[in-house]
Specification:
EC number: 2.7.4.25
Radius of gyration: 16 Å
Order of helices and strands: EHEHHHEHEHHEH
Catalytic activity: dCMP + ATP = dCDP + ADP; CMP + ATP = CDP + ADP
Subcellular location: Cytoplasm
Number of helices: 8
Organism: Halorubrum hochstenium ATCC 700873
Keywords: ATP-binding, Cytoplasm, Kinase, Nucleotide-binding, Transferase
Amino acid sequence: MLITVSGPPGSGKSTNAVQLADALGLGHVSGGDIFREMAAERDMTPVEFNEFAEEDPQIDRDLDRRLREIAVERDDVVLESRLAGWLAADHADFRFWFDAPLSVRAERIAERESKPVDRARTETERREASERKRYEEYYNIDIEDLSIYDAAYNTARWGPEPFLDVLVATVEAYDSATDEGKAPVEGVVYDF
């Protein structure tokens, strides 16, 4: 089973994707981890690397191509990235979208990265604007279009344990024998 988990920074996608993969006995691949490794290799913060990627489209294309290959070649994995749902639209058995208000996400990021909340909020807004621009330009993807997702959750409304229970129950209720929801999104040109 291939499950994708997508959402903006600080939405809880990494935390929940890891827990979901563990609960279901699946592997876990994080696009964010790969992106942060690429940024560190160039001695940049993720925000700086996002903006650098605006000038060098090959960065996104390399990352997205790698994630797309994982989506096509691997089974029994939770693939987590901002574009995971789009990258695996024609292969995923189930696609989740997680979100939370910016104020909540900024607090989570600030705590995780030991920085002031105002700084986390500003950096997150810059990062999201940069990513939104690139996804539209490179792939004609409107990241705010949630129509491809099977379930979308506001993670600010759930605690970690009850939310994991909801996610597991959602996946278990899913009838993997049906091909509904596996078709590519119409009108989207995939060029990863």
